[in-house]
Design brief:
binds zinc ion; 14 strands; five-stranded antiparallel β-sheet; mainly beta
């Protein structure tokens, strides 16, 4: 699926081809909540890094989260969180451990995205009390992250990238 995206101020525009465009994975971890999810969670979808075209690249900043886990020394995540330096909009995550993939934030996409038949509420072990986590039959709850990849979820739900 061909997607167009932008930050809020318009300094950055991008296009990308997404084989996993359903915005079903709500990540409630503290990085997502702080950097891209005021209401509680962020949503990243799956796309092909080779297809990413960017206008306004000079306005992009990159954040590497420092991971602090009990009993471990703090370590810097290799994942690059790209955002607009002018307006602060979260744009996409790229991780050198999976270089062929790019994960745009659903919030940055201007093309209408398909509505997911179910959502996965992930990272629930980090949810603060005030966040209203969606519950019910169509909301799968997950303490950390699901085993199933974005691509496998799409295959299980019968989405074919060729069909769009
Ligand atoms: Zn901007
Ligand atoms: Zn997260």
């Amino acid at each position: 699926m061909h997607l167009e995206g932008s930050c809020h101020c318009g300094a950055v525009h991008f296009t990308v081809n997404a084989d996993s465009p359903y915005p079903y994975l709500h990540c409630h971890c503290s990085i997502c909540r702080k950097t891209a999810g005021s209401g509680g969670y962020a949503i990243n979808i799956g796309a092909d890094m080779r297809s990413l075209r960017v206008r306004g690249r000079k306005h992009i900043g990159v954040y590497h989260a420092v991971m602090r886990e009990p009993g471990k020394r703090p370590w810097r995540s290799p994942a690059e969180r790209h955002f607009c330096q002018l307006c602060g909009s979260a744009l996409w995550v790229w991780d050198p451990r999976y270089p062929e993939l790019v994960h745009p934030h659903a919030s940055a996409i201007d093309t209408p995205l398909p509505r997911p038949p179910e959502t996965v509420e992930a990272g629930l072990k980090w949810v603060p009390e005030w966040v209203d986590v969606p519950r019910g039959r169509q909301h799968v709850h997950c303490a950390t992250w699901p085993e199933e990849s974005l691509a496998d979820w799409h295959r299980r739900h019968g989405f074919s990238p060729e069909r769009g």
